[in-house]
Specification:
alpha/beta, 16% strand, Rossmann fold, 2 domains, six-stranded parallel sheet, 12 strands
């Protein structure tokens, strides 16, 4: 099957590259287009080399690609991006309503789409994936400075909720918190350090700065628990990466985190803005090493079975076929009565 994938840069571009590689390994021909292309460009290209399906993973070029695909009667699948960054705007809602199939990354995103009047029977849930061969429980990790280590990863902005984790640290003696993935200097970094000093935990807070992709598994493996406490809904990529490393996650029960973390199975879910509840949840696991190990093992099992890029590619192909793309084996379009049952 020839697949035209429209993407942009940053995290979405990286995610798209991983999906394209997994689809290629399954024997499909994926052509990746970037968000600077126009309707005329898409139309000319696809008239010459027609794809079986157009998969839109970019807000910027989405409208242009939808128009070109409609003119050529090519099925369109649209992956929304509301839960991971900003709420979907008017343009993205219009794309979702006009697409033949819409992919939500989690249950919370699906609910947003239904509220936005996208029919439920046109939505598939296909989450983000994780490289389970790169993020593994095996390998070295840096030494820790206290008896226990908590790790959080993300941008140094108030919305990532690191302040909740810092506040929780006051109730967790002999425990250090490492915040990684963002610049160690700047306004919010200073705010967090000042907040930590006021809470008496300054010496147990470490803001390490950006971590290279190659070094991230090592850092995650060094944690007893990884924290994901954003103040607004997110999918939770770090939670997936930690799970693949066999590390339990304690996360806010919001957005896609309620999908990626199975409460009392792979980690624990807590209410946002509740540092005491977060500290209680952390203590509950740190004082029970057997449960901590069980959660980590379950997290790794679930990451490999549900979130590997191989599985994400299979689920994405199912969404393509629901949209009316030709079946890879027969070359025939699948009608609703012929379609296999969706995993979504």
């Amino acid at each position: 099957m020839r697949i035209a994938m429209i993407t942009d840069g940053g995290a979405v571009g990286k995610d798209s590259a991983a999906l394209a590689a997994a689809l290629t390994q399954l024997g499909h021909d994926v052509v990746v287009h970037h968000d600077q292309d126009t309707t005329a460009w898409f139309t000319d290209r696809w008239r010459t080399t027609r794809p079986a399906v157009v998969h839109i993973r970019s807000r910027l070029a989405g409208a242009a690609a939808v128009t070109a695909a409609a003119d050529l009667a090519i099925p369109v699948v649209h992956s929304v991006r509301a839960a991971e960054d900003a709420p979907a705007g008017t343009v993205e809602r219009d794309i979702a309503r006009s697409a033949d199939r819409v992919i939500a990354s989690c249950a919370a995103e699906l609910t947003e789409l239904v509220i936005g009047k996208v029919p439920r029977n046109r939505i598939s849930v296909v989450p983000y994936g994780v490289d389970v061969d790169h993020f593994t429980p095996d390998g070295d990790h840096p030494p820790i400075g206290r008896r226990h280590r908590l790790v959080a990863v993300g941008d140094l902005t108030p919305g990532t909720g690191f302040a909740t984790a810092v506040a929780a640290l006051a109730g967790l003696p002999n425990t250090e918190l490492v915040i990684a993935g963002a610049q160690p200097h700047g306004k919010h970094a200073d705010e967090l350090r000042n907040y930590a000093a006021g809470r008496g935990v300054f010496d147990r807070l470490h803001i390490s700065g950006p971590v290279e992709e190659d070094a991230l598994p090592s850092l995650l493996r060094s944690a007893h628990i990884v924290l994901a406490t954003p103040w607004r809904p997110r999918f939770g990529i770090t939670a997936l990466e930690a799970a693949a490393c066999g590390v339990p996650v304690i996360a806010n029960n919001t957005g896609g985190l309620t999908d990626t973390v199975v409460d009392h199975v792979t980690g624990l879910l807590v209410s946002p803005h509740r540092p005491r509840a977060l500290a209680t949840a952390v203590r509950k696991l740190l004082t029970n090493p057997v449960r901590l190990e069980q959660y980590g093992a379950a997290a790794r099992d679930r990451a490999t079975s549900r979130y590997s890029w191989h599985q994400i590619a299979i689920d994405t192909l199912n969404a393509y076929r629901h949209a009316g793309a030709p079946d890879a084996a027969t070359g025939l379009s699948l009608h609703p009565t012929q379609m296999v049952k969706s995993r979504s």
